[in-house]
Protein backbone atom coordinates (compact mmCIF):
# COMPACT_ATOMS: atom_id res chain seq x y z
CA UNK A 1 0.00 0.00 0.00
CA UNK A 2 2.86 2.37 0.77
CA UNK A 3 4.35 1.81 -2.67
CA UNK A 4 0.99 2.59 -4.30
CA UNK A 5 0.75 5.82 -2.35
CA UNK A 6 4.31 6.79 -3.19
CA UNK A 7 3.86 6.05 -6.88
CA UNK A 8 0.57 7.97 -7.02
CA UNK A 9 2.11 10.90 -5.13
CA UNK A 10 4.74 11.11 -7.84
CA UNK A 11 1.99 11.73 -10.41
CA UNK A 12 -0.72 13.58 -8.49
CA UNK A 13 -1.32 15.39 -5.23
CA UNK A 14 -5.10 15.05 -5.51
CA UNK A 15 -6.22 13.77 -2.09
CA UNK A 16 -9.24 11.88 -3.46
CA UNK A 17 -7.20 9.91 -6.00
CA UNK A 18 -4.34 9.29 -3.55
CA UNK A 19 -6.56 8.10 -0.72
CA UNK A 20 -8.66 5.84 -2.91
CA UNK A 21 -5.59 4.34 -4.63
CA UNK A 22 -3.96 3.52 -1.30
CA UNK A 23 -7.17 2.09 0.18
CA UNK A 24 -7.78 -0.02 -2.95
CA UNK A 25 -4.19 -1.23 -3.28
CA UNK A 26 -5.15 -4.77 -2.28
CA UNK A 27 -8.35 -4.89 -4.31
CA UNK A 28 -7.15 -7.51 -6.84
CA UNK A 29 -6.38 -9.92 -3.97
CA UNK A 30 -9.50 -9.04 -1.98
CA UNK A 31 -11.78 -9.52 -5.00
CA UNK A 32 -10.78 -13.18 -5.11
CA UNK A 33 -12.65 -13.75 -1.85
CA UNK A 34 -15.93 -12.85 -3.55
CA UNK A 35 -15.33 -14.97 -6.63
CA UNK A 36 -15.63 -18.63 -5.66
CA UNK A 37 -13.32 -20.97 -7.51
CA UNK A 38 -11.00 -18.21 -8.74
CA UNK A 39 -7.35 -18.99 -8.04
CA UNK A 40 -4.89 -16.35 -6.83
CA UNK A 41 -3.37 -14.14 -9.53
CA UNK A 42 -5.66 -15.27 -12.28
CA UNK A 43 -8.90 -13.50 -13.20
CA UNK A 44 -8.40 -10.51 -10.87
CA UNK A 45 -4.82 -9.80 -11.92
CA UNK A 46 -5.16 -8.94 -15.61
CA UNK A 47 -3.00 -5.93 -16.44
CA UNK A 48 -5.18 -4.99 -19.41
CA UNK A 49 -8.36 -4.77 -17.30
CA UNK A 50 -6.85 -2.51 -14.63
CA UNK A 51 -4.77 -0.53 -17.11
CA UNK A 52 -7.59 -0.02 -19.57
CA UNK A 53 -10.03 1.26 -16.97
CA UNK A 54 -7.38 3.49 -15.39
CA UNK A 55 -6.51 5.00 -18.77
CA UNK A 56 -10.19 5.51 -19.64
CA UNK A 57 -10.90 7.27 -16.34
CA UNK A 58 -7.77 9.39 -16.70
CA UNK A 59 -8.82 10.52 -20.20
CA UNK A 60 -12.58 10.76 -19.58
CA UNK A 61 -12.65 14.25 -18.00
CA UNK A 62 -10.13 15.59 -20.52
CA UNK A 63 -12.13 14.32 -23.52
CA UNK A 64 -15.58 14.84 -21.97
CA UNK A 65 -16.38 11.13 -22.23
CA UNK A 66 -18.58 11.10 -19.13
CA UNK A 67 -20.74 14.23 -19.31
CA UNK A 68 -22.96 14.73 -16.31
CA UNK A 69 -20.94 12.43 -14.03
CA UNK A 70 -19.75 14.09 -10.84
CA UNK A 71 -15.96 14.72 -11.10
CA UNK A 72 -15.47 13.34 -7.58
CA UNK A 73 -17.00 10.02 -8.66
CA UNK A 74 -14.57 9.90 -11.59
CA UNK A 75 -11.64 10.64 -9.21
CA UNK A 76 -12.74 7.90 -6.79
CA UNK A 77 -13.04 5.39 -9.64
CA UNK A 78 -9.70 6.52 -11.07
CA UNK A 79 -8.07 5.99 -7.66
CA UNK A 80 -9.73 2.59 -7.30
CA UNK A 81 -8.51 1.30 -10.65
CA UNK A 82 -5.09 3.00 -10.33
CA UNK A 83 -4.64 1.22 -6.99
CA UNK A 84 -5.51 -2.10 -8.63
CA UNK A 85 -3.23 -1.36 -11.59
CA UNK A 86 -0.29 -0.56 -9.32
CA UNK A 87 -0.91 -3.74 -7.31
CA UNK A 88 -0.88 -5.86 -10.46
CA UNK A 89 2.18 -3.99 -11.77
CA UNK A 90 4.03 -4.78 -8.53
CA UNK A 91 2.98 -8.45 -8.77
CA UNK A 92 4.41 -8.49 -12.28
CA UNK A 93 7.90 -8.21 -10.78
CA UNK A 94 7.44 -11.26 -8.55
CA UNK A 95 8.51 -14.80 -9.42
CA UNK A 96 4.83 -15.84 -9.53
CA UNK A 97 4.02 -13.20 -12.13
CA UNK A 98 0.64 -12.24 -13.57
CA UNK A 99 -1.44 -13.55 -16.49
CA UNK A 100 -0.65 -11.72 -19.73
CA UNK A 101 -3.25 -13.64 -21.72
CA UNK A 102 -4.97 -17.02 -21.28
CA UNK A 103 -2.35 -19.70 -20.73
CA UNK A 104 0.58 -17.27 -20.46
CA UNK A 105 1.86 -16.08 -17.06
CA UNK A 106 4.80 -13.69 -16.95
CA UNK A 107 6.90 -12.40 -14.07
CA UNK A 108 10.14 -10.43 -14.08
CA UNK A 109 11.38 -12.65 -11.22
CA UNK A 110 12.90 -9.73 -9.31
CA UNK A 111 11.60 -10.88 -5.93
CA UNK A 112 9.81 -13.69 -4.12
CA UNK A 113 6.56 -12.66 -2.43
CA UNK A 114 7.00 -12.29 1.34
CA UNK A 115 10.80 -12.41 1.25
CA UNK A 116 13.43 -9.78 2.04
CA UNK A 117 13.92 -9.27 -1.68
CA UNK A 118 10.33 -8.01 -1.90
CA UNK A 119 10.90 -5.48 0.88
CA UNK A 120 14.17 -4.32 -0.68
CA UNK A 121 12.40 -3.89 -4.03
CA UNK A 122 9.63 -1.87 -2.35
CA UNK A 123 12.19 0.27 -0.51
CA UNK A 124 13.90 1.09 -3.81
CA UNK A 125 10.56 2.05 -5.34
CA UNK A 126 9.83 4.34 -2.39
CA UNK A 127 13.22 6.02 -2.75
CA UNK A 128 12.82 6.55 -6.50
CA UNK A 129 9.26 7.85 -6.04
CA UNK A 130 10.46 10.21 -3.34
CA UNK A 131 13.14 11.54 -5.67
CA UNK A 132 10.60 11.80 -8.46
CA UNK A 133 8.25 13.78 -6.23
CA UNK A 134 11.02 16.15 -5.14
CA UNK A 135 12.21 16.86 -8.68
CA UNK A 136 8.75 16.97 -10.27
CA UNK A 137 7.12 19.18 -7.62
CA UNK A 138 9.60 21.83 -6.44
CA UNK A 139 6.77 24.16 -5.36
CA UNK A 140 5.39 21.43 -3.09
CA UNK A 141 8.81 21.03 -1.46
CA UNK A 142 9.02 24.80 -0.87
CA UNK A 143 5.57 24.70 0.74
CA UNK A 144 6.61 21.80 3.02
CA UNK A 145 9.83 23.62 3.99
CA UNK A 146 7.91 26.80 4.81
CA UNK A 147 5.40 24.84 6.87
CA UNK A 148 8.19 23.10 8.82
CA UNK A 149 10.16 26.32 9.24
CA UNK A 150 13.23 25.37 7.19
Notes on the protein architecture:
- It is a single chain.
- This protein is mainly alpha-helical.
- It has one domain.
- The protein is built from seven helices and two strands, in the order αααααββαα.
- It has a two-stranded antiparallel ribbon.
- Strand 1 and strand 2 form a beta hairpin.
- Helix 1 runs antiparallel to helix 2.
- The longest helix has 21 residues.
- The model has no long low-confidence stretch (mean pLDDT 85).
Q: Can you tag this structure with a few keywords?
A:
150 residues; mainly alpha; two-stranded antiparallel sheet; 7 helices; 2 strands; 5% strand; globular
Task: Give a concise summary.
The protein is mostly helical and 150 residues long. Helix content is 63%, strand content 5%.
